[in-house]
Amino acid sequence: MDKYVYEFADGGRHMANLLGGESAGLAEMTRMDLPVPPGFTITTEACRFYLEHGREPARLAEEITRAWTQLEASVHKQFGADRPMLVAVRSGAEISMPGMMDTVLNVGLGDEAVEQLASWSGDERFAWEAYSRFVRSFAETVLRLPEYLFRTAEADVRRSAGTTATGELDTARLKTLTHVYQHIVRHETGDAIPRDPRRQLELAVRAVFDSWNGERARAYRNREDIPEDLGTAVNVCLMVFGSLGPNSGTGVAFTRDPATGAPGAYGDYLRRAVGEDIVAGLRNTVPLTELERLDPASYAHLCANLRALETHYRDVCDIEFTIERGTLWMLQTRIGERGAEATFRIASDLVDEGVITPDEALGRVTGERLARLLFPRFADSAHGHPSAHGVAASPGAAVGRIVFDAHKAADHKAKGQNVILVRPQTRPEDLPGMLASIGLLTTSGGKTSHAAVVARGLGIPCVCGAERIELDPHHKTLTLPDGTRLHEGDFLSLDGSTGDVFAGRTPLVTSPVAREFLHPAGGAPQLWPGPEPAHDEAVVHAVQRVLGWADHHRRLGVRANADTATEADQARAFGAEGIGLCRTEHMFLGDRQPIVERLILAETAQERGAALAELLTVQREDFRAILRVMDGLPVAVRLLDPPLHEFLPDLTELEIRHATLDDRSRDRRHTARLLEAARRTHEQNPMLGLRGVRLGLTSPGLYATQVRALAEAAAQLRAEGGDPRPEIMVPLVGDVRELRLIKLQAEQVLAEVSASTGIEVSCPIGTMIELPRAALTAGDLAADAAFFSFGTNDLTQTTWGFSRDDAEASFFPDYLKHKIFDVSPFQTIDPVVGSLVTQATAAGKSARPGLETGVCGEHGGDPASIRFFDQAGLDYVSCSPFRVLVARLEAGKAALEKE
Ligand code: PEP
Ligand code: MG
Question: Is the domain 45-238 a CATH 3.30.450.20 member?
Fold first, then answer.
């Protein structure tokens, strides 16, 4: 690289890796002729050199001096000689790390410069306030002196002035405060802050470089998977002042509403303030529309700039701006973070506006965001008046227990509790607690406060600035406007889409998007009394359009895992093209359990036959209902998988019951038989025990009865004019001989049913691939299997050799911490398990051309895994009904990416 320092005008948006995101945005705006204060950027490469060698590159000082001299010249030219040259020194990495590194403002101030600032601004108090802030921030950030020294000194000065707010100190007290700070610096370091601005800059730049390795920054990178060696750029920008009187201020704006996606400028403004004041959320901002009233000219200028940026970037932008005595300055821009609803609405609107193509829109949405739109919401507020109200900062509903500090949130999460973090405002160090919470509530700050921005990024609901709630962090209570006091651990409900806060637990209802699919065209129970908000309609419409684009590209079929007619109904409504897995075990539970007990306890063929006959009747009805709902679509029914003893009461429970019952009671005799059966069938490792096909092979008549129930249900429906498409799926097969034996029995039953009903029941018989042995002998299996369905849950368990039920709760947190894997292999397909799927698919398809292959493990609904299965050449994925939309979207995106 030929240089370490770039003037803003020399950079551009595509140089974020070298200039960092912030400077790339400033450079782009400079090129667009938007009003950006002049400045320059020190590259990430200079930072990387510094981090590697512990010193700056040799040429850096000289390059900075040159840029500094040029900056001085341009400031003189642009603003006249009396404007003091003060700069902001900010960090800016390629990937945004908001608030995680250091910033030093007002670099260049000193005993003389403060006088110059006072005379230029005509506001001595302003100058001294800036100077006091500078000395303190330089001392804390650059000289690394402890914060409490300054906090204590500040409190002393406030006390002697008889006020509790530093903002109320007069000029004389601000001078005193500055001198006290200077005294602390001399006392602690033996020296004063350097007077030479160039030297101040050098130290500030080094402090920003060092902050790349600060604790906060490292923790953030670790969590967000940001590489450690990127380094940060440093941007040095002429200070403009938002605190210079009533016609000054500072704000944050989006080109559209980041929570709803509604068109039109959106943002927060704070009069007589600097940027930090907004993010800190200490003072409540006013909506941007208020700026229109306060300063129409600046507002119009701002809106024009926002439009220019959105057109230029072809996406929503967020910006920071400052107005200095009626002059607008743009201080930052980037592609705006947005909530899930906004993601879809904006993508769809930008297509309508001719800004992007449908394919680009598809690239901007994700299944993970879509999943959030399917979360339930609170029932309409007509069902209960909110206890308090704040800013709707990040959409979605949350019901959880109150905690007041971030550490507690993490502790409670570890105990499996849902918590809502309640704070006056949040700070970067609260992040672990925010991550552990299902919702956030703050009593100050707006949609652009730290809490709001982080919540939207994390996708958790957030209500900000609920000013009328009083917090008492000391006693750990909050008091609602009506006087109700809630304590830590009490339930609270909040709705980040409306800003409503409710004491206690508020009932939830289906989300508008889910409702539209499940009950289109108002055919459904009315969940929202009164007119539906237009916004919901816009979001639903956007989701439907985007799904249409995804379906257009999609190669993978999408089926659902559904065990009941109700689930099948939901699946079909979400667009499932069949059932990929109907687990039959629930048909053995509830009121059927006594039948299963009779089957297990049967001592004669006759007793056994009677129990099976009962099962046949109930299962036939179950299958009829499901096949009817899925008329014309395939339904893969899995024969019974879990070991029979799972249907008996727990062994210990039986032992206790047996010991406490009267010797002569009938109940005791029955319990004794159950106990004997439970002991007989007890297994040390049920996951590897008598289950799946092994059960079918050793439990006479069991699978045959299930096949008969399915075949008779299909025959009945066909006789009624329906088009049932059952498929039989054999679980946990490891060898083709197992499959062959079951297939033989099943074909015989199918032939019997066809003969007895006079209706030809054809039913493909396939196998699940859930064991490495099956995957590695897929070619042999394909000779006898009409289809393969990969049970990636078991395949993951058996490939890794760990039990899902135990491993996830016990040692997975350690494995994740040690980065043995980045994500649970039960969530996203493990590459080695994946390669078994790929090999088996290829071997199966080559042995039997046209072999249909699908996945029915949990991975079928996981975005990253879906992409993998598309590559692997599978025919379909199958997932729970509520993931069907996500799978359709991700399958479409996967195909588009390949194109
Ligand atoms: C599987 O193993 O992936 C599967 C779908 O079966 P189950 O989860 O019921 O064991
Ligand atoms: Mg399985």
Answer: no
